[in-house]
Amino acid sequence: MRYAIVIEKSQNNYAAYVPDLPGCVATGDSVAEAEQLIREAIEFHIEGLREEGLEVPQPSSKVEYVEVAA
Predict the structure, then answer these.
(1) Residuewise pLDDT in 10s, the chain (70 residues)
(2) pLDDT computed for residue 70 by the predictor
(3) Domain boundaries, the chain
C-alpha cells in the first residue's frame, strides 16, 4: 500500500501524519527521521487495526502542489 504523508516543520522538530489513517503520527529531528518514523508508525497502526479485527483504510488521499503568485 502507498499512503500519502504530510511532514510539517514545527518549532523544534518535524511532525508527520497520514490523512488516511487518523491518529497515525510521528515526530523527528529531521525530515528524514520523521519520514522513517512515520513509515514505522503506519506499519504498527495497520498491524493494530488487523489485530482488533478492524478494517484497514485504503489509501485515498491525493497530493498536489498549487503554484500561486507571491
Answers:
(1) 899 999 999 999 999 999 999 999 999 999 999 999 999 999 999 999 999 999 999 999 999 999 999 8
(2) 83
(3) 1-70
pLDDT at 58: 95
- The CB density around residue 68, as the number of other CB atoms within 10 Å, is 4
How many whole angstroms separate alpha carbon 70 and alpha carbon 36? Answer: 33
Provide the CATH topology of domain 1-70. Double Stranded RNA Binding Domain (3.30.160)
CA 55 vs CA 13, 14, 18, 30, 68: distances in Å: 32, 29, 16, 32, 39
Residue type at 9?
A: K
What is the Cα Rg of the chain in Å? 14
Q: Which of 38, 30, 25 minimizes the C-alpha distance to 14?
A: 30
The one-letter amino acid code at 61 reads: S
